[in-house]
Design a protein that fits this description.
The complex is a heterodimer of chains A (471) and B (296).
Chain A: H1 15-18, H2 31-38, H3 48-51, H4 59-67, H5 71-81, H6 85-91, H7 98-101, H8 104-107, H9 113-126, E1 141-145, H10 149-160, E2 164-168, H11 177-180, H12 189-202, E3 206-208, H13 219-223, E4 230-233, E5 239-240, E6 253-255, H14 256-265, E7 281-285, H15 289-300, E8 304-308, H16 320-329, E9 332-334, E10 337-344, E11 350-363, E12 369-373, E13 379-382, E14 385-388, E15 392-393, H17 397-401, E16 427-429, H18 432-435, H19 440-470
Parallel strand pairs in A: 1-2, 1-4, 2-3, 4-16, 6-14, 7-8, 7-14, 8-9
Antiparallel strand pairs in A: 5-15, 10-11, 11-12, 11-13
Helix pairs in contact in A: 2-4, 2-9, 4-5, 4-9, 5-9, 6-9, 10-19, 14-15, 15-16
Chain B: E1 2-11, E2 14-20, H1 22-27, E3 33-37, E4 44-48, E5 51-53, E6 58-64, H2 68-74, E7 81-82, E8 84-89, H3 100-104, E9 108-113, H4 117-129, E10 134-140, H5 149-155, E11 158-163, E12 170-171, H6 174-183, E13 191-195, H7 198-211, E14 215-218, E15 234-237, E16 240-243, H8 244-247, E17 250-252, H9 258-265, H10 271-285, H11 291-294
Parallel strand pairs in B: 9-10, 9-13, 10-11, 11-12, 13-14
Antiparallel strand pairs in B: 1-2, 1-7, 2-6, 3-4, 3-8, 5-6, 14-17, 15-16
The chains are: A alpha/beta (471), B alpha/beta (296).
The complex binds flavin-adenine dinucleotide (2 copies), iron/sulfur cluster (SF4) (2 copies) and FE2/S2 (inorganic) cluster (FES).
FE2/S2 (inorganic) cluster is lined by residues 223-226, 228-233, 243, 245 of chain B.
Chain lengths: 471, 296
């Protein structure tokens, strides 16, 4: 069979149209397209692609089913490893994960694993097919803090093993960044996130919203009077960073978290009660997914939008597809540029941002070339809205209210990479709370490992207990 | 879902709810707040926990109607449910965690402006229960909107009422009464805790600075999540940016940049909310400072 080196293209909303709506940008494969794309897979004996997937989905197996037209079978295979395939198919940085290592990528286009996965998950949802739920309860209780990808995955995996799991979530809606951060046009909330959360609930997982662990409930209480055998912390990395430059408190300057939360979680774009700044000209500072999402949201809310980033195009940490989409939609990229001051009008509202041009010097410890200021190159961009998308760090609330839970100097909880075990007995952690801001699929991978870690730990404990009673 | 077990009107546009929220009632301390969301699609509203009953598992909220969200919330009746109540948020008042011996040496004065009487009440009661001498000044625009007078009387040594129009108690502002107590009546206070409209706290702080009394205020900037996630609640304290929802809401009054805080508070106010707020704050303070009239 001759190699087919070109991937089947996917339908997308026209950039000119989508720049004014919040409908999904990528329309996904049809069944015919998915099957055609699936047929490109070589079904490798040693599938490289699987080594790139942190939750180890059996990629060749599910793709082979799709190629045969057995979509339900394909869904079953994916569900064995992932509880959020419709999410991952949309937001995984596939070019660095599964697709990045697909052998076809050496000669041509890698198989569009993400898009096929998305098709399968959407198909299952549309046809009312849910993951299998023949579960035997094992009588053990586990508490999960945080209903983001890490917490949902850990909870789902434990439930499948027979655990009685309760998730405690601080916000009023489960999903973590999937509901408050990533916008509707990339990840529909009702159609996709809510459905996948329901699938986790269908496994028997209880979700209690509006509970801020550390305030309304402590880890000690969970292990004590609340009667849980173990706790998993998947509280994410939600604290926004600012630049600490003059003028940052001006009205109209806000964190990406605030902006996106108002828009996504609080549905400001869809007529929710929550007010949001509608700028005429918006500057977004940063170059990651969060910056792309903020910029594309501001654009859709009617602003002429700029991205200001201190390195060059090559170093942009955002997913390649998002950068490409942002450019198509007309976002202006001001690269090798760094803000030095925010200019405030007399009424306290932002009127512009003062920036300095940068050039790239020697590589720094991250291996990327270090940006250096070019003296005397300051200039101003007039604007009435500035969004700071500079990255986030974990919230210190849980570590500061839990005795014996160690963190590193970046406020991340210290946990064993293989098991999620923290410095405190019976307490496990994973996702952004441990790694700092990373990706959905890494958080899921960590949730999965911790589920196994918790299972092993409780089995070990039971065995020890049995030994002691025998002795 | 959180049941409203009791509702009563404290004044025109001011409603008291007793809400069943066992997890919050178990952990909350004076000075903390909750975020309330009436139903799935409405605004998140930060509200101070004005009282709590650990046994009954209830908390008490006092809400002033200033805009759409508070208006909708206050239409709920006894026996109905609030969709979401999250908390307790923020840090407890500093004196709750203080050494009891230190506390015994305190002479506290609480200054409450308007609705501020509600959040002040549990703190006064707490101090009273711990044997600390405590006086209270409550200021209101006029007698009709004075709230919690009887309740307050029961838990403090001296209650001083001030009204802007002289319809009851001392005729004038809380700051006038404060000065009178210290300068004329020879009262000695170790600490002042002032809670009320931003503008009142600003002037109370200026007065106590002049009188040399350490002062704490409870700030109410705009908030979204209340857990440190968004930065909407940024305030400038001692030249440093603080997140009021996690670092506060109580701060050293003499270090707070009130003008900055007031400017930020205006950010999202709706036209109707602004109009009402301007009315509330201006009327309590005669608009003499000129700041209220700047409200856009
Ligand atoms: C705007 C944006 C866009 C992104 N785009 C992508 C993308 O395209 N692809 C990708 O792979 N990754 C993306 N990411 C990163 C990805 O979303 C995160 O790495 C991932 O969500 C981390 O999962 P988590 O479960 O560890 O944490 P989170 O998703 O942050 O979830 C943590 C949950 O815990 C809750 N919580 C926190 N503290 C407490 C407490 N004390 N008590 C109870 N609950 C608590 C939070 O409310 C939250 O719901 C993006 C992130 C952002 C912000
Ligand atoms: C820590 C804290 C404790 C509070 N305690 C109480 C209390 O015990 N009782 C009470 O009646 N009110 C209290 N408030 C103020 C209350 O939250 C606001 O009055 C309410 O959010 C206004 O909402 P609205 O939609 O009805 O008004 P609108 O004016 O229509 O509001 C529009 C927007 O502005 C914001 N906003 C308006 N006014 C304020 C304000 N004063 N503070 C913060 N955000 C505001 C809201 O987030 C809303 O999104 C407190 C605020 C904070 C931050
Ligand atoms: S979950 Fe992500 S990494 Fe794994 S196969 Fe799917 S798209 Fe690839
Ligand atoms: S590496 Fe690529 S071609 Fe090989 S099995 Fe995986 S997806 Fe198919
Ligand atoms: S309210 Fe969001 S950080 Fe304070």
């Amino acid at each position: 069979m001759a190699l087919n080196l070109k991937r089947v293209p996917v339908a997308e909303q026209d950039p000119k149209v989508r720049a004014h709506n919040f409908e999904e940008v990528c329309l996904g494969y049809t069944q015919e397209e998915a099957i055609e794309e699936a047929k490109r897979c070589l079904n490798c004996k040693k599938p490289k692609c699987m080594t790139g997937c942190p939750v180890e989905i059996n990629i060749p197996a599910f793709i082979a089913q799709v190629a045969e037209g057995n979509i339900e079978e394909a869904y079953k295979i994916i569900s064995e490893s992932s509880s959020l395939p419709a999410v991952c198919g949309r937001v995984c940085p596939q070019e660095n994960q599964c697709e990045g290592v697909c052998v076809l990528g050496n000669k041509g286009d890698a198989v569009s694993i993400g898009r096929i996965e998305r098709f399968v998950a959407d198909w299952a949802c549309a046809n009312g097919i849910h993951p299998a739920t023949d579960i035997k309860p094992n009588g053990r209780k586990v508490a999960v803090i945080g209903a983001g990808p890490a917490g949902l995955t850990c909870a789902g995996d434990l439930a499948r093993r027979g655990y009685d799991v309760t998730i405690f979530e601080a916000l009023h809606e489960p999903g973590g960044v999937l509901v408050y951060g990533i916008p509707e046009f990339r990840l529909p909330k009702e159609k996709v996130v809510a459905k996948e959360v329901d699938n986790v609930r269908n496994l028997g997982v209880k979700i209690e919203t509006d509970v801020v662990a550390g305030h309304a409930l402590t880890v000690e209480e969970l292990l004590g009077e609340e009667g849980f055998d173990a706790v998993f912390i998947g509280s994410g990395a939600g604290l926004p960073r600012f630049m600490n430059i003059p003028g940052e408190l001006a009205n109209g300057v806000l964190s990406a978290n605030e902006y996106l939360t108002r828009n996504n979680l609080m549905r400001a774009y869809a007529g929710g009660d929550t007010p949001i700044v509608h700028g005429k000209r918006c500057v977004v500072v940063g170059g990651g997914n969060v910056a792309m999402d903020s910029a594309r949201t501001a654009l859709r809310l009617g602003a002429e939008t700029y991205i200001v980033y201190r390195r060059s195009m090559e170093e942009l940490p955002a997913r390649a597809e998002e950068v490409h989409h942002a450019q198509e939609e007309g976002i202006i990229f001001d690269l090798l540029t760094n803000p030095v001051e925010i200019l405030e009008a007399e009424d306290g509202w932002v009127r512009g941002i003062r920036c300095i041009r940068m050039e790239l010097g020697e590589p720094d410890e991250s291996g990327r070339r270090r940006p250096i200021e070019i003296p005397g190159s300051e200039f101003e961009i007039p604007c009435d809205e500035v969004i700071m998308a500079l990255g986030t760090s974990p919230n210190p609330l849980i570590p500061s209210t839990t005795k014996g839970l160690d963190t590193n100097r970046r406020q991340c909880i210290i946990a064993d990479e293989a098991t999620g075990q923290t410095s405190k007995e019976g307490v496990f952690a994973g996702g952004d709370a441990v790694t700092g801001a990373a990706t959905v699929i890494l958080a899921m991978g960590a949730g999965k490992k911790a589920a196994k870690g918790i299972d092993d730990y409780l089995n070990r404990k039971e065995a020890e207990k049995a030994e002691q009673t025998e002795a | 879902m959180f049941e409203i077990v009791k509702k009563r009107a404290l004044a025109d546009n001011i409603v008291e709810f007793v809400v069943k929220a066992p997890r919050i009632a178990k952990h909350c301390e004076p000075g903390q707040f909750v975020i309330v969301k009436e139903e799935d699609q409405t605004e998140r509203i930060p509200l101070t926990i004005c009282d709590f009953d650990r046994k009954a598992g209830t908390i008490t909220l006092v809400i002033q109607i200033v805009g759409r969200a508070t208006e909708k919330l206050c239409q709920l009746n006894q026996g109905e449910y609030i969709a979401h109540v999250t908390g307790p948020l923020g840090k407890p008042s500093e004196f709750v965690t203080m050494d009891p011996e230190e506390l015994k040496k305190k002479r506290l004065l609480f200054v409450a402006g308007g609705l501020g009487a509600a959040p002040v009440y549990p703190q006064v009661r707490w101090a009273h229960d711990h044997g600390i001498p405590v006086d209270v000044i409550v200021g209101a625009k006029t007698k009709d909107i004075l709230i919690l007078e009887d309740e307050m009387k029961d838990v403090c040594d001296n209650l001083y009422i001030t009204t802007d129009d002289g319809s009851y108690g001392y005729h004038g502002l809380v700051t006038g009464k404060l000065e009178e107590l210290v300068k004329n009546d020879g009262k000695k206070y170790t600490d002042v805790i002032a809670i009320g409209p931003m503008i009142m706290m600003k002037f109370a702080a200026l007065k106590t600075k002049e009188l040399g009394i350490p002062t704490v205020v409870s700030l109410n900037p705009i908030m979204v999540d209340g857990t440190g996630m968004c930065g909407a609640c940024r305030v400038l304290v001692d030249g440093k940016v603080k997140f009021a929802c996690v670092d506060g809401p109580e701060f050293d009054a003499h270090k707070v940049d009130f003008d900055q805080a007031m400017q930020r508070q205006r950010l999202y106010k709706t036209e109707e909310g602004r109009a009402r707020l301007a009315q509330i704050e201006q009327d309590t303070h005669h608009g003499g400072c000129g700041i209220c009239s700047e409200v856009k």
